[in-house]
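> call design_seq(struct)
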């Protein structure tokens, strides 16, 4: 009854909001409280086309900027500056910044030049004048790395800021939630007021092999995870201490803003001690001052230095990179030192990471990159070296940050919002190999012309799609040192999918034999077909799936009384509630294909069982086992 009452109240509230008049007073109230999502929605209701007051456009520009919506932010900054050229010069910079995020480099350069002209004393403007065309040179800066999705990401939430804390333990930040029901999440989970996103917390996962995606994860235990916004964390090499970013409220360090009647804090650095399986005795680091921001900790492999980002006294930009000596096994510190002008600029420098071979990787939003935050590298062993942008692929027009790399294992990770949310990607050294093969008739050994050959990675992302020539051969170039699956489709033959040869050498050759299609086999009260393949996390019938369903279609047209139940299964990746919905969507999509081709609805029923009935019952499934579990069954209800 309580749930029904709550839902009824929510419906009444939404209905009432839909009918009320837009209110500038309410919008300004939301804005003053930094509730930018609600403020933006209210200001949008006050738009009046060309007659919109400049104040509304200005407020919307700031809201969209705070929410990271660069397209709309640039639009409203441009409108605001057109309506009122006397706005503070910082508005010109924010226009340039958001245009850059959209990949509109020439327009961003024009706006940035105007900013540099008007703000002659601003270090960002001076830096721009020295590097105005730096973005042009990046067109010829290929990356030495290959980037792919890591497997740990949740499509509903944001995951980022991974640290390689020990050889086998990885820590990361996520705003994923323990509440499975949407209405419960909205009522009970702690949310960041400005964006309305859930508060972040610290998680850990275990390292896999270079080819295997990250999957299992767990919330760090103990008071380290509370209702605060948490940021990057890193363990001391002794395993008994952890340094992490969190809100200064945790240490009761904040100031009261009497204007908007709210507490205002900053991100700060804390440590915690391991007690059994929990992290306890949380303290603020002794060199932290309440007036400044401290974030993005990193500890060197030897445990002798803690690197971090801060705007503390002595910084040259918004956030600079600093380091401090670690003493007494991690519980005492020396005097913080700024990393200097070779690294720090008038912009933001963040996320330091020092590799075993003495290379400093860091993130900066300085002018001349691909967009927002880009990843740079500097050889600390060479006093004359300068930071280098890591190139296209590693960097995009969006925010790319937090590069970590294990040189012994020869792979690493980065965080990025290139697809619209913050995710963790795996980074591998770029290595390409020529992959060739032949497709032939399994019985006659005759080569098959115009067979479609598709290579996919562990997340079902298509990497290459090609057709065989008259000799049945295909050739493509793929990143090496990776495991792929190859899918082959040829009309009149069974669809085939198998593990591809791992291209660890310069060339590989693979022979794929196809079997001619016959009528579907009926066995144990089931119609036996090849798997109906789906793209990862999708419910759209693929070309290969259509070929298999055409065989079922022919069987049902021949046997007019045949009724079937389509049962769809998923792998164990993700939450079971989501998997059950996904499997039902796939079963319904399969049925819809048959309906669209003339089969009446009374002959088909559907059922989605998620991952509850695996074909292979595995606790830590391989990609092959996951593929076996992703399947559809066609059970005969009436012959």
């Amino acid at each position: 009854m309580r749930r029904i009452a709550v839902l009824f109240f929510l419906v009444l509230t939404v209905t009432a909001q839909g009918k009320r008049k837009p209110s500038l007073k309410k919008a300004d109230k939301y804005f003053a409280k930094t509730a930018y999502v609600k403020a933006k929605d209210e200001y949008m209701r006050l738009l009046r086309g060309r007659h919109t007051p400049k104040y509304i456009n200005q407020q919307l520009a700031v809201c969209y900027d705070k929410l990271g919506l660069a397209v709309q932010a640039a639009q409203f900054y441009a409108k605001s500056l057109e309506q009122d050229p006397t706005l503070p010069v910082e508005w010109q910079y924010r226009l340039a910044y958001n245009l850059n995020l959209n990949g509109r480099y020439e327009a961003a350069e024009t706006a940035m030049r105007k900013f540099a002209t008007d703000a002659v004393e601003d270090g960002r403007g001076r830096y721009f004048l020295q590097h105005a065309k730096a973005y042009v040179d990046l067109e010829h800066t290929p990356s030495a790395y290959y980037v792919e999705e890591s497997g740990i990401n949740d499509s509903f939430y944001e995951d980022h800021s991974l640290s390689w804390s020990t050889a086998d333990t990885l820590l990361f930040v996520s705003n994923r939630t323990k509440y499975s029901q949407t209405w419960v999440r909205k009522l009970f989970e702690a949310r960041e007021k400005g964006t309305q996103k859930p508060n972040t917390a610290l998680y850990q996962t275990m390292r896999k092999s270079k080819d295997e995606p990250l999957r299992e994860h767990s919330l760090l235990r103990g008071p380290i995870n509370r209702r605060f916004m948490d940021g990057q964390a890193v363990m001391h090499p002794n395993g008994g201490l952890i340094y992490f970013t969190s809100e200064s409220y945790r240490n009761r360090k904040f100031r009261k803003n009497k204007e908007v009647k709210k507490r205002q804090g900053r991100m700060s650095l804390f440590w915690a001690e391991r007690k059994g399986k929990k992290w306890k005795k949380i303290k603020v680091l002794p060199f932290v001052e309440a007036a400044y921001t401290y974030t993005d900790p990193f500890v060197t492999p030897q445990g002798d230095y803690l690197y971090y980002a801060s705007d503390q006294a002595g910084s040259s930009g918004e956030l600079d990179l600093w380091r401090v000596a670690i003493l007494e096994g991690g519980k005492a510190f020396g005097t913080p030192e700024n990393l200097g002008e070779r690294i720090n600029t008038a912009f933001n420098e963040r996320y330091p990471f020092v590799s075993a071979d003495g290379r400093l990787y860091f993130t900066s939003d300085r002018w001349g990159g691909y967009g927002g935050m880009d990843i740079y590298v500097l050889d600390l062993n060479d006093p004359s070296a300068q930071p280098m942008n890591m190139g296209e692929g590693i960097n995009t027009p969006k925010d790319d940050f937090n590069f970590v790399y294990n040189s012994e294992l020869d792979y690493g990770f980065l965080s990025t919002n290139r697809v619209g949310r913050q995710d963790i990607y795996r980074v591998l050294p770029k290595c390409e190999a020529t992959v060739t093969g032949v497709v032939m008739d399994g019985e006659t050994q005759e080569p098959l012309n115009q067979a479609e050959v598709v290579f996919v990675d562990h997340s079902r992302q298509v990497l290459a799609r090609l057709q065989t020539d008259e000799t049945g051969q295909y050739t493509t170039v793929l990143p090496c040192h990776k495991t792929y699956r190859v899918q082959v489709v040829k009309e009149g033959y069974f669809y085939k999918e198998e593990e591809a040869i791992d291209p660890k050498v310069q060339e590989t050759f693979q022979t794929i034999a196809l079997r001619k299609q016959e009528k579907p086999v009926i066995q144990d009260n089931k119609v036996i077909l090849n798997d109906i393949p789906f793209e990862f996390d999708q419910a759209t019938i693929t070309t290969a799936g259509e070929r298999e369903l055409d065989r079922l279609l022919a069987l049902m047209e021949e046997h007019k009384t045949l009724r079937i139940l389509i049962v769809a299964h998923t792998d164990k990746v993700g939450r079971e509630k989501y998997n059950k919905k996904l499997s039902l969507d796939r079963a319904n999509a399969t049925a819809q294909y048959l309906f669209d081709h003339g089969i009446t609805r009374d002959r088909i029923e559907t059922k989605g069982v998620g991952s509850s009935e695996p074909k292979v019952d595995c606790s830590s499934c391989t990609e092959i086992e996951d593929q076996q579990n992703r399947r559809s069954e066609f059970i005969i209800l009436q012959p």
